[in-house]
Amino acid sequence: xxxxxxxxxxxxxxxxxxxxxxxxxxxxxxxxxxxxxxxxxxxxxxxxxxxxxxxxxxxxxxxxxxxxxxxxxxxxxxxxxxxxxxxxxxxxxxxxxxxxxxxxxxxxxxxxxxxxxxxxxxxxxxxxxxxxxxxxxxxxxxxxxxxxxxxxxxxxxxxxxxxxxxxxxxxxxxxxxxxxx
Length: 181
Prior knowledge:
This protein has helices spanning 15-20, 37-46, 57-75, 80-90, 116-131, 162-180; strands at residues 23-26, 29-32, 93-100, 103-110, 136-138, 147-149. It is α+β, with helices and mostly antiparallel strands. Strands 1-2 form a two-stranded antiparallel sheet.
């Protein structure tokens, strides 16, 4: 059986936002990549995690818990309950300092390997919050549910994709202006 391709409209975001972007809208209908282990395998592969973690039911369940926790935090960034949900995911792993022949390093360790992908996403979100929390954004288009990390020089990106949501918004404004005039 051929591998499932990644159907998502926005990929390549930091791992925490990429996990949120496993849900999207297409033709007005909600889509979800993580409805089964095949979709989990696609997401693991897209984030370079497929060689470290198994796309099985246990990993899917724990990754969905992490996604819901990150979604709650994205929807309510200052909410203590949302932060606690992410913290619960982070309780399932830790960073272990190491020293090898190549020098000092770090390695993630998990209470259960099935928590690995979700923990990595939650840990990655901490890095975004440390770096530039104001650049973690939801797409400004009212019908879009995607998130992105704004890497534009002046930090004013509004759309997940200018070619999709940005153009739809511009076309809507143009149509409204012409209809009124």
